[in-house]
Write the C-alpha cells for this entry.
Amino acid sequence: MTGGERNPAAILAAEAEATTAASGGPAEQAGPRGRGPRAGNTTAYLQYVAGKLGGALVSMFAVLVTSFFLFRLIPGDPVKQMTGGRRVSSEQLAAMRTEFGLDQPVWKQFTDYCGNVLTGDFGTSYQFHTPVMDKITEALGPTLWLTGTAYVLYTLIGIWLGTRTAWRNGRLGDRFHTGLALTLYSVPSFWLGLLLIITFSVGVGPLPGMFPTGGMESGDESGIGYVVDVAHHMVLPVVTLVAVGYAQTLLVMRSSLLDEMGSDYLTTARAKGLRDDLVRRRHAVPNALLPTVTLMFVNLGTVVAGAILVETVFSWPGLGGLFYQALSVPDLPLVQGLFFVFATAVILMNTVADVIYPLLDPRVGR
Amino acid sequence: MTTETASSLPAPQEPEKTGAPREAKSPRALAWTRRRHSAARFWREYRTHRAGLVGLVALVLIALAAVFAPLLVGADAQSVTQAPGEAMQSPSGEFPLGTDQFGRDLLALLVWGARISLTVGLLAAFLSVAIGTVVGITAGHFRGWYATVIMRVTDWFLVMPTLVLAIALASVMDRSVWTVILAIGVTTWPTTARLVRAQTLAVESRPYIERAQALGGGHGHIMARHVLPNVMPLVLAQTTLVISSAILTEATLAFLGLGDPTVVSWGGLLQDAREAGAVSAGDWWYLAPPGIAIAVVALAFTLCGRAVESVLNPRLGVSR
Amino acid sequence: MDTKDQHGRTRSSSAARAATAALSPKRRRPRLLLAAAAAAAFTLTAGLATPLNPAPQQAEAKDDGKKTLTVAVAQSVDSLSPFLAQRLLSTSIHRLTYEYLTNYDAKDNHAIPAFAEKWEPSADKLTWTYTIRSNSTWSDGKKATAEDAAWTFNKIMSKEGTASANSNFVTNFKKVTAPSPTKLVIELKKPQSTMAALDVPIVPKHVWEKVDDISKFNNDKDFPVVGNGPFILDDFKVDQYVKLKANKDFWRGSPKFDELVFKTYKDQDAAVAALKKGEVSFVAGQPALTPAQANGLKGESDIKVNEGPGRRFFALATNPGARTLDGKKFGDGHPALLDKRVRQALFLSVDRKTIVDKVFQGNAVEGAGYIPPRFSEYTWKPSPDQELGYDPKRAAKLLDEAGYEKKGGKRVGKDGKPLDFRILCHATDPNDKAVGKYLKEWWGDLGIGLKVNCLDDVSVPWYAGEYDLAFDGWSVNPDPDFVLGIHTCAALPEKAKESAATDNFICDKKFDELYDKQLAEYDPAKRAALVKQMQSWLYDSGYMNVMAYPNAVEAYRTDQIKSITTMPSAAGNIFGQDGYWSWWSAVPASGKSSSDGGSSTGVIIGIAVAAVVLAGGGVLIALRRRSTAEDRE
C-alpha cells in the first residue's frame, strides 16, 4: 500500500495475521479466506486453485459492473464534454451520440461494453479521441517504473529493518526505527513530496535545487543520457513512496519474527550451540518471511493505483494522474477503464498470493 | 490485508467466571461492576505503554484546542473581510505562523482546522466501524447463504482500491463535509467487518451462547447482549486505528480539491497553500504546519490504537 | 531502443557491481550480498532500461548551437488534430503549425492577411471571396492552395465526427468552394460580419484525405507533421512534451529559435521552480502565475515577470429563469432574482476593488463592461450615474423596496422565507473559491444567505438551470461576436436541460435586435457602437456582474530570451495570443538556451544516480554488516 492508501488498521491486521500464520494458529481452520489445502494432495490443490481463479473471475465481473454503473452517476453530458461547449448543429450532435453509442438504452450499452472488454476494447476516450486501452498502456509504463522501483526498495528496506528491530527488540535502535517508521507512515505522502520539492528541487538557502521539479524526462537526452535523466527524475518521487511505504513491511516482518523468536525450536537450535546469527538466518527469518511475502503480493496489486498523489505532485505521466484528469472532465470510458485496471491488479495479486501460499508454507506438506 | 485476529485475542470473557458477586446484586449491576473492573484493568495495562500514553496526551491537547478554538483564537479567524494581516506574511511576533493569501492568521486557521479534520476523522471512522461491526456480527451470527453473500461483498470491497473509490464517490456527490465522511466511511469498513466476524465466530462457539439460545434468547438478544459486548474491545481498538487513516484520507481528498472549499481543514489549508504558489515561493511556514498537524494526529491515534491492541492481545509483541 | 536497453543494462550491472565491491566486507558470505546486489541492480534497471519509451531520441549532437525555447505549460494536449483539439495549448500549437485565413495584428488586434491575402463580401453580403496567397508551401514541398482551405471547411461541416472543434465557425455556412488555387468562395445563409475572424487551421488536403476515420485520428503518429505555419510539429510525447522546429521556409520569415518545446508541468509550482533553475525559458501560468509566485520571481536575476491585460473577464452570472427556445420554463433559479432591484442590490454589495486588491493582489483590472479593455475597439465603461459601485446602503435600500425586509439579521421575503442563494463555482479555480468567501461575508452583512457549491464540472446544474448565481468567465476573441451571441434568445436550448450555446439563459428582444444589427454591420466603427450599446444594456440588467479582468501574469528568462513580442505590443501578454507573434518573433539571448541546463547538471545527475544505488543496495549491506558485527561481540 502506497500513496494515500494507507490504513493503519490494515497494518495491525497484517501484524496479527503474521503471528497467527507464523505460529500455525487456529486461523487456518477458521479463516474464511481459506489458507488452502493442508494435505499434500495435488488434486485438492488444483481444486483449490480453480476455486480461487473462479472467485477472481466473479470479482472481476463485479468490478466491471461497478465501474460501468458507478461512474454513470457522475453528472455530465458526454457530448457536451466532447464539444467543449461550442455551438454545434443538432445533426452533428446526433451523429456523435450514435458514434459513441450514447443513443442506445443503458442495458444495451452495458452488454456492448462487456463484449468489447472481452476483446480488450474499453472504448474511446472522450477528451483524447484515442482508444482507452492505448492511453492506459501509455501511462502504465511510467507508473510501473515509479511504483515498482519504490516497491522493491521499501520491501527490502522493510524486511531488513524489520528483522533487525525484532532481533534487538526493545533496545534503542528498535524503538528508534519503529518510531521513525510509524511517524513517516502517518505523514501525508503528498505533503512529504511537496516538502522534498521545496528542499531539493527549489533549493533552500545554500542548498541548490539538485533534482528536477517534476516530470519523467527532460526530453532532450538520448541513449545513456536519457537513462540517467529518467533515473534523476525518479529520485524524489521514489524517496517519497519509500518513506511512507516501508513501515508496513517493517512492522509485519518485525512482529512475525518476534513471534517466531519465542518458538521452542529456536531455543533448541540455540541449545545446539548454533550462533545467534545463524539461528536467525537459517531458522527464524525464513519462517517469519511468510506473512511478509503474502503482504508483498497484496501490496503488489495496489502498486498500480498506489501513486495517484505522488504522481500528481511530481507531474509523473502515469495512471494516477490520468485517472484524476479523466475524473474531472469526466471522461467516462477512460475512468471506467482505469478503475477496472486498478481493481483487477489487486484481484489478480490477491489470487496469486492465495495460490502460492500453500506452496510456500513449509508446514503445509507437499 | 486482513484476516482474523480473533483466535489470537484473549478468550472472550464468559459471564459466569468474572465479576465478584460477594453480595446479591441485580444482574445488571453485576455486569456493570464487571465492566468497571475490566476497564480499570485495561487502564492499568495501558498505562504501561509509554507510546500509547504519549499519543493519548497529544490527542487530549489537540482535542481541547479544537473545542475551545473560538476562545483561543477568536471566532472570526476565518473571516476574509476582517483579516488582520497582509497577504502571505512570513512568521512574526504578531503572526507566529505567518498569514495566508487573504491575510488571515495561519495559527488561528490551524487551530480551527483541527475541528473539521478531527470531526471528519471521527465521524468517518465511526461510520466505517459501525458498518463493519454490523456486517461482521450478522455475518458471523447468521452463517449460511447470508454470510456467504455478505462476505463475498466484503471481499469485493476489499479489493477495490480504497482511495480510487473514495475519489470517485466524492466526485459523484456534492462538495461537502458529509460527502467526505460518507466516502471514507463507505470504502473502509471491510477490514473491520472481517475482524469482527472472526471474533463473533469465536464468541458464538462458547457454551453460554448455546445456553442463552436454549433459554429462548432471540437473534437480536444474542447479538446485542452477548456478542456485541465481547467484540467491543476489538471494535474500540479498530476505531482508533481507522480514525488515523480517515484523517489522512480526509486530508488527501481535500488536497485533491474534493473537500468543501468553504470550510477550513488541514488538508484544505495544504491545498490553499499549493494553489497560492507557496511551494515555489519557498513559503515553508505555510506548508509545513498543516502537514505536521495531520501527521501528529494520525500518529497519536496509531500509537493509541497499537497500545490498545497490545493490551488486548499481548502476543502481538508491540512493545511500547 | 535496442541500443538504449543495452546501455542501460550494462551500465546498471556494472554500477551495482562497483557498489558491491566497494562495500563488501571480506568475511561475508556471498548469498545475501548477491541478493542485495541483485535488488540494487533490479532497481536500477527498472529506473534505467526503458522499453516503455520506444520513441527513439534524435541522436544528433547536442551542442550544435541549436537554439531551443522551452515553454512550461500546465495543460496536456487533448489532440493534435485541428478537427478535434479544444484546449488552449492544442489550439495554440495549431496556430503555430498551420496557417489560418487571417491573423490579428500584434499592435491592435485588427485582422490582417495570413493564408488569405485579401477578402471581400459581395453586394448582398452573402458571399465572401478570399484571395489565397501563392507563396505558402506545405513542409513536404507541395503548394498550399484554396483547395486545401475548401476541403478543410467542408470536412468541418460534414457529419464525420469532426464537429468537436471549430464547428461554431461554420454553422452559418451554406457552401464552400475553391474555383481556382488562389480563390476561396464561402456562401452564407445570413450576413455575418466575422468573416475575417475565422480561426480555423487549414490542413493539407493531400495528407488528410488519406485518413480513414477523422473522428479518431489524432495527428500524432507521423512526425514531422506536414504543415505550413511558422513552426513544424516535430515530436510529441503524451503529458510530457510537444516539440516544434522552425519552418525555415515560412513566407513571413523564419522564426529565430530553431526549436520550440512545450513541456508539461502539471503543477504550476514545479514549472516556476523549473524556470528559476533554467530548465525552461518561459512559464505561462494557468491561467496566471499566483501573486506569491510572481513576487517570488521578481526578486530573481535574469527573470522578467510580464503582466499584460488578460483576455478573460471574471463575472457573476445571475439565473434569469431558465427556459427553452419555445419559452418553456425549467430549472429552479431563485424567483427573487427575477426582480431587477434584487440583482442590482447584489451588484452594489460586491466590492470589486477589494476583489482586485485581495484576491488578485493587484494582478487584475476592476471590472466594468462586458468586453475587456484589451480590446480597445469594443470595450465600454458605464457613465458615473449609470455605475453600480460598491454601496451596501443603497443595496439595502433596494432590497427593502423589493420587499425583502431585514428581520433578525436575515432578509425575509413577503412569503416569510429567508433570502438564501446558491452560487455555482468551479472547484478547480482558486479565484472562484476565494471570491466566494468574500461574497458570503458581504451578502451575509446584508442579511442574504449564500451557499457556495463548488464542482469539477458545473455544466450539469448549469444547463439544467439549477442555480441562482454562478461564477462565469470567457476568454474573449478579437471579434466579440461569440461572447455576445451566447446571450441571445437563439442560443437557448431546444429542450429543457439540454446543452446549448446559451451562457446563462438571457433572452431579451432589445439585446437580440442589437445583436442582429451588429452581425450584419460590415462597417467597423458602426459595429463597435452597436456592441457598446449591447454592453450597456447587459450592465443595467444586472444579469452579468463583471467583477474583474484578470491580468495575464507570466515570466521568462532574459538570459535565454532576449526579446519577445507581446500582444497588444505596447503592454500585452505572451502565451495564448491570438496570433503566433510571440514565439515567431522571440529572439534568443546570446550563448544560452534552455537545453544547456541538462548537460551542465550532468555531474549532479551522476551523483544522484550513485545515491540511488547506494540507497538501494549499499545501505542494506552496510546495515547488515554492522548488525552482524555487533552480534559477533
